[in-house]
Amino acid sequence: MNLKYAIALLVLFLPSFISAQDNENKPNIIFFITDDYGWQDSSEAMWTKRTKLNDRFKTPNMEKLADMGVTFPNAYSASCVCSASRISILTGQDPVNHGTTFITGTNGKNSETMLSAEQDNEGIQKEDVLLPSLLQKAGYRTTCIGKAHFGSKGSFGADPLNLGFQHKYYADHNGTPRGKNHGGRDAYHINKNGEQVHYSEAITRAAKSEIDTAVNNKTPFFLYVSHYAIHTPILTDPRFAKNYPNLSGQDLAYATLIEGADKSLGDIMNHLKKRGIAENTFIIWTADNGGLWDNKPLKGLKNDALEGGHRSPNFVAWGKQDLSLIHQKNLPLVPGRIDNRPYIHQDWLPTLLKIAGTTHPNPSLLDGYDITNLLSDKKGDIRPDLFIWHEPNFWLHSGPESAIRENGWKLMYFYDSNTWELYNLNEDLGESKNLLHQHPEKAKSLAQKLISYLKENNANYPKDKKTQQNIKPTIPISS
């Protein structure tokens, strides 16, 4: 072979060789997100004490994930409702900035005197810069499995294939399980070749199939594994009913849905090991918002600015420890560590881009922080303990609320009653003692930061039904 011919071959094949080599060095990412999954909906305790719910529920695979990696009891959702949080994960933005502060397709309910705030009812817009799209450009196979709920029916955001996901299963504009649309006998079952398969199992099978395809193609993958469990309707998963002889009715159904989601986690982790890629796979477990059942000792539920509306079990781990691998050296996760520092959903976009070895084209759009140092307990830049929630829509049991947390102090504003509440979460996790009048200067300082943030980011507000004027928080006056 002459020199010119050899050089020509090298030029021809080198880019594909480098691309394949780069792909092999990229860790796979599985982002498990459950629906309305409460802080206590696990046999792995999120508190310093075990609760009756920790002893009721059976989630051995969540326990295993916690032992394999790091538990974050103080991790937050971007919102107390689903669409707003899910869009924050994909955009890296606060709901105020991406524009959907509630559920796509509706502004919510109204009271006798107040209208819910307007919002981007269509959800994700065509111009949004999104996590799956950025990962796809970085060489990842991107798949959305299960609940999407990123856009209203017929909108651009309704179809995950518009958002950078190359493949989808059971994912559309719907926010609740619709098994009957797929030939199922109820909301939680679908028809697969004549077999009635529970959604949690169908989602698991799809994930395993996607893993197989990616491994066979030697392609890194991003799986967004989004369980409909444990959203209403709360229906028994018959596979696990026998495990709860002392429960009945909704309590039984709820426990079986939790165990079904946990089995999915275990089956997928086992499949990673079977395919020999566990040590090359980064796993996240979270939920879109707090639970709608029982979050004690936290106060509040889904749709509340209280802690119960924003917390859920959060874990990160490598599928298998191997510190000889470069990505595990870069992001070491000490097995069994518990880290009480908080983070929030919008932090995941910049963090996962860092892990994947790529960047955002316009970081100024982001509200989230790269939390890789926090995850691995390294020294260096750590996101500030400052979080803001703006939830200006009525729904279910609660009305419009805004909240701010800084260094363990949390201030909430309730629009329907024009009242403020202040809590020290370091001493009062259950938000039982309102310290507004004991610490007026702290309340004033936090209120100023919250009000300024909402103003600077052109937030939408509830309106007075009679005057159609915006209702905005005002600085609390101590009595």
What's the CATH class label of the largest domain?
Alpha Beta
SSE string, helices as H and strands as E:
HEHHEHHEHEEEEHEHEHEHEHHEEEEHE
Count of distinct structural domains: 2
Give the count of helical stretches.
13
Q: Distance between the terminal alpha carbons, to the nearest Å?
A: 91 Å
Helix fraction, binned, reads: 25-40%
Whole-angstrom Rg = 23 Å
Overall pLDDT: 93
Unreliably modeled segments: 1-21
What topology, given as strand order, has the largest sheet?
5-4-8-1-9-10-2-11
Q: What's the CATH superfamily of the largest domain, by name?
A: Alkaline Phosphatase, subunit A
Structure classification: alpha/beta
CATH third-tier fold name of the largest domain = Alkaline Phosphatase, subunit A
Strand content: 15-25%
Oligomer: single chain
Q: How would a textbook summarize the main sheet? A: 8 strands, mixed
CATH architecture of the largest domain: 3-Layer(aba) Sandwich
- The coarse overall form would be globular
Number of strands: 16
